[in-house]
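Title: [Solved] Protein-S-isoprenylcysteine O-methyltransferase 3D structure

Original question kept below for reference.
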Amino acid sequence: MPFPPSLSQATFATAVLASAAGCIIGLTPPNPSPPSTAAGTPPAPTTLSRLRHFITNGNLNNVILAPIAVLSLHTVGLALTHPLTPSWIPTTARLNPRRISWSTDTAVPLALLLCVGIPLRLIAFRTLGDSFTFKLATPKRGLVTTGVYRYLQHPSYTGAAVIFVAPMVLLYRDDGAMGCWMPEGVGRVVERVVAPLVAAGMLTLMGMRVVEEERMLRGRFGEEWERWTEGTARFVPWLW
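Solution (posted by the thread starter after getting help):
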């Protein structure tokens, strides 16, 4: 291992570690899910209800975070040892130096994570406080329209979308750390087919959750909610 690593490689490794830590924090429930208040015998579980339970209890996020953590640590190791590579890695024949150093391919997703996705998620956590739960529930503090919520109705979902997609652009690469452990054909399929399908599925599920949340807020706060939504964007200020 070259010691010390160059400043460029050291800062890149630090950014990757910071982004991985931010993803873990941003996808970990900040508060426990509230208990169900429904009276009577609960209905028989359906496929959709099981899927919703899997998501709102953070299980799906754990599935997403595990490969992000592993690939981030591997990318950091490759970055700090570059141009040398550890002998225990199965193959580095396809490894592209642009994937383990500062380049447009890495700077853009890292910037989106560190400057947009993770901050938005954490700001939403802090603003809503104990009202922020992964399970759909009426806000304990009423309708929050201050802070970042003066401009966005769903900043946490904007942040989550970036956290879902940007790591795939950064890490799920056949010519990056992932490709060191997969045959070429498999790595290419994961990068070009599996990762996009997973991202699309996550965004679809998130969209379904947004619709449910808006329906709940409209029913609970009525005209107050409608006035607030008229003057704010849903996900991107002044655009959408």
